[in-house]
Amino acid sequence: MTLEELQEILAEQFSCDAAELERDTALADLGADHEDMVELAWALGEAIGVEIDENELNVDMTIGELWRLARDLEENAAE
Question: Among 14, 31, 32, 59, whose CB has the most other CB atoms within 10 angstroms?
């Protein structure tokens, strides 16, 4: 998963412009709540082909942290 792919997923979920999403933007800054974390876990899981537990995500994560998590999960699944 590229950062741009993650930004597109987030832009769609939070109805914002992907170009405005920076690595240091927290999910809370996008108005994320628990329901959003459930939906985001599902969307990311679909994108990378790995089931993601929403408990691995939290609203205080930045987009950069979320991207690292998604890449790590994707790499571990490929092994």
Answer: 32
Which residues have C-beta within 8 Å of that of residue 60, sequence separation ≥ 6?
26, 27, 28
Can you give the residue range of the structural domain that contains 61? 3-78
d(CA 79, CA 74): 9
Residue 27 maps to which CATH number?
1.10.1200.10
pLDDT digits (tens, 9 = 90+) for 26-66: 999 999 999 999 999 999 999 999 999 989 999 999 999 99
Distance CA 56, CA 19 (A): 25
Cβ atoms of 78 and 50 closer than 8 Å: no
Angle (nearest 5°) at CA 77 between 74 and 79? 115
